[in-house]
Write a structure and sequence with these properties.
The chain contains 10 helices and 10 strands. By secondary structure, the chain is an alpha/beta fold. It has a domain of 188 residues: Rossmann fold (3-Layer(aba) Sandwich). α3 runs parallel beside α5, α5 packs parallel to α6 and α8 packs across α9. It starts with 30 loop residues before the first strand and ends with a helix. It binds adenosine-5'-triphosphate (ATP) and magnesium ion. Adenosine-5'-triphosphate binds next to α1. Adenosine-5'-triphosphate (ATP) binds next to α1.
Length: 291
């Protein structure tokens, strides 16, 4: 997993607490892609993606292993150049205005990114610097996000001693230090137990309700997506095969359909069979890293 190589700078008006600018619901969309495409050699990982993510919404990007979800997120976070099409995030073009995009986004990658040899507080201070939070504000901002993510009590504990859920909450805390308008979370709950998953999701929901943050999230847990996403898109082999509210998608498939049924209908595989081995291996790998 590639990490951001350049500082992701602070948003200009980030000094005072309050809702992220430009993230009000009903405003211009937070993300718009038109024909967004990524090829690797002759293989097309993302194939002409047309997506609109309303500002202030929680948007779920679903799909089997290899569908192109992470590749899409890497393009939207300016880490990977598209080979075709366009994408605008928080009003800026990912290719033409990458610095403007980076200033307004947060990103929690699929694989664990917190440093186990540092405490939560130290991890956050490092990230505050990378994100360009002014020195005079760093301490307060770090204490504030620790409090927000329910980690104040363990601020000075080594991250290597954290549970998986705590690590994920710390990573989300890192990604919100500069109060991004748009947050990208790539499988924030993979490998977590149900209680830890619920806690991560509660904090994600609070980010949206307290700060108006737009959140694009990927998950393989259809129950999570059903309960927590305003809209979902299902990707299959690089394409969006359906998009809508969970209720709309379920109604389109059948009267008693679950989101699992919608997934199976549009991808021809169930979560249980499609990629269960890779999922299990990865979940175990993540669980090992998380200790
Ligand atoms: N750097 C790369 N070079 C070549 N192929 C790649 C590269 N990155 C991704 N791919 C391929 O692109 C496809 C989409 O990968 P991607 O990681 O976006 O899928 P995903 O939907 O995130 O899957 P998962 O659910 O397993 O995380 C896969 O077939 C993958 O092997
Ligand atoms: Mg992925």
């Amino acid at each position: 997993m590639t990490e951001p190589k350049e500082p992701i700078g602070s948003s200009p008006g980030a000094a005072a607490p309050g809702p992220a600018s430009g993230a009000a619901q009903g405003g211009p969309p937070a993300i718009v892609t038109v024909g967004l495409t990524r090829r690797f050699g002759t293989f097309t990982a993302v194939d002409g993606l047309d997506l609109t993510v309303p500002a202030g919404s929680i948007f779920g990007l679903l799909g089997p292993n290899g569908a192109g979800k992470s590749t899409t997120i890497k393009m939207l976070t300016t880490l990977l150049p598209p080979t075709g099409g366009t994408a605008r995030v928080a009003g800026f073009d990912v290719v033409g205005e990458p610095a403007q995009v980076r200033r307004r986004i947060g990103y929690v990658p699929q694989l664990v990114s917190a440093d186990g040899s540092l405490t939560a507080y130290e991890n956050l201070m490092v990230m505050a610097k990378i994100y360009g939070v002014p020195r005079a504000e760093r301490r307060d901002r770090v204490l504030q996000v620790l409090e927000f993510m329910g980690l104040s009590d363990v601020a000075h504990t080594l991250v290597s001693r954290f549970s998986g859920g705590m690590v994920r909450r710390l990573e989300i805390a890192q990604s919100m230090l500069h109060r991004p308008a748009v947050l990208f979370l790539d499988e924030p709950t993979v490998g977590l137990d149900p209680v830890a998953r619920r806690s991560v999701w509660e904090h994600i929901q609070r980010l949206r309700s307290d700060y108006g943050t737009t959140i694009l999230v990927t998950t393989h847990y259809m129950d999570e997506a059903d309960q927590l996403c305003d809209r979902v898109a299902i990707m299959h082999r690089g394409r969006v095969v359906t998009v809508g509210t969970p209720a709309e998608l379920k109604a389109a498939v059948g009267p008693d359909a679950t989101l699992d049924d919608v997934f199976a209908h549009f991808t021809g595989s169930s979560i249980a069979e499609g990629g269960s081995y890779r999922d299990a291996v990865r979940a175990r790998r993540v669980a090992r890293r998380l200790g």
